[in-house]
Amino acid sequence: MATKKITKTTIATKAEPIFKESVYNDKNIQISPRKLRLLVETSKKLTVLSALSKLKFTNTKSARVLVKAIETAIATAKNNYNLIPETLKFTSFIVNEGPKTKRTDKSHGSRFARGIIIRRHSRLNMTVKGQIK
């Protein structure tokens, strides 16, 4: 008994879009992580351009820091990886604690944890994913 071979031919109509990631890291931001996380939690659910437009109208220091970081991430993705800015989305948006600076202030006496003043800093890690041109 003879068997037939069935071959499939596929016609390439359109190429599937290729996605790539771009990473932004900032290791020393002069703002406490708690203040920065408040805006990160709301903007991580949005697309990159809509988060940027929303943060430009927010009047806080953390919003100004995030606007600069997002603009840098968009420029890096566009220039280095040839990604389309309209297709960018956040894949990860993490705020961690950075280095602390401590100093004593004897004018406060025993208040403020024995006169020790702690300046908190943040680390920001942002990964953006988008479609290649």
Q: Calculate the mean pLDDT score and round it.
A: 88
Helices and strands, in N-to-C order? EHHHEEHEE
Rg from alpha-carbon coordinates = 23 Å
Q: What percentage of the residues does DSSP assign to strands (E)?
A: 25-35%
- Total count of domains: 1
Helix content: 25-40%
What topology, given as strand order, has the largest sheet?
1-5-2
Q: How many strands?
A: 5
| Major beta-sheet overview | 3 strands, antiparallel
InterPro entries: Ribosomal_uL22, Ribosomal_uL22_bac/org-type, Ribosomal_uL22_sf
Protein name: 50S ribosomal protein L22
Subunit structure: Part of the 50S ribosomal subunit.
Pfam family, one: Ribosomal_L22
In brief, what are we looking at here?
This protein is α+β, with helices and mostly antiparallel strands. 34% of the residues lie in helices and 29% in strands. The N and C termini lie far apart (53 Å).
Q: Notable features of this structure?
A:
elongated, two-stranded antiparallel sheet, 5 strands, 4 helices, alpha+beta, 133 residues, rRNA-binding, three-stranded antiparallel β-sheet, Ribosomal Protein L22, Chain A
